[in-house]
Design a protein that fits this description.
alpha+beta; two-stranded antiparallel ribbon
Amino acid sequence: AHRDGPSLDQIVPGAGYTCTNVQLVTTQANLSKSTLSCAEYVQLCEQVYFHHQHLRRRRREEGAAPAGGGW
């Protein structure tokens, strides 16, 4: 499956693929979310974002260019 292609995700993992428990996401998002709840996944994304912001500030303070395409 293409990573940007559509994928059905269970909103509540383990509760089954019902009309009220699915959402359409990209395959990449579904694979990275895995068995996390939506709230847990958002929290993980926030942690990654803030970690990269911290690294970016640190590199800037040390005079190094940002790594990873400007993160």
